[in-house]
Amino acid sequence: MASGVGVLDKAVAILAATVDGASLAELVDRSGLPRATAHRLAQALEVHRLLIRDAQGRWRPGPRLGELANSAPDVLLNAAGPVLTALRDATGESAQLYLRRAEERICVAAAERSSGLRDTVPVGAGLPMTAGSAAQILLAWEPPESVLPLLPRARFSGRTLAEVRRRGWAATAGEREPGVASVSAPIRDRGGRVIAAVSISGPIERLGRRPGDRHAVSVVRAGHRLSGL
């Protein structure tokens, strides 16, 4: 994606190339920029703390990026409250929004069922990326290098993730926790990348062993409402 402002586009290409860490050679390969240009821009971004170098001398995203992100209004979180409330009311089950943080998924917003049996996930809680329908959503569209290290510990397989990609939602019964079922769908950014998962969860005795048959349409609809913000 090009803005027409050459130096800005090149700087963004450098930043994108360092997400998982990058040597100078890797910066050149991933960005497609000449070596001298890549090196000059990386050094300039380092001065502004947009890049840092780790103990191995590889460039990585710097703290200034997080500072800028944290100072901006979170459009997704601002929009999530009414959508999760509507999803809870439509399904009768607790609704959650999850973001991936390394090997955990963090509940960043929730609308709890007010009475009866429910699966309560506190906002801020970290759950594993190796079980549950939200974990499947957050991994299904990730590149292999982000998924393969987790699969030996996961309660689902690569074939499961392929099925999630095919149908566009995930459902589990007793996978993360005995007696708990859930249904999840992706939330995408404007470029189509999966950035979060929207879910409902509750007791298997109410949702059944195939909770997606009953609730997938509602959860997918909620994911669409929160996508592209």
Distance from N terminus to C terminus (CA atoms, Å) equals 18 Å
Strands, total number: 8
Largest sheet: 6 strands, antiparallel
Structural class comes to alpha+beta
Q: Could you tell me the radius of gyration in angstroms?
A: 20 Å
Fraction in beta strands? 15-25%
Poorly predicted runs are none
Which H/E pattern describes the elements?
HHHEEHHEEEHHHEEEHH
Shape: elongated
* Physical arrangement of strands within the biggest beta sheet: 5-4-3-8-7-6
**Helix content range of the residues, please?**
40-55%
User: How many DSSP helices?
Assistant: 10
Mean pLDDT: 90
Protein traits:
8 strands; elongated; 10 helices; two-stranded antiparallel ribbon; alpha+beta; six-stranded antiparallel β-sheet; 21% strand; 229 residues
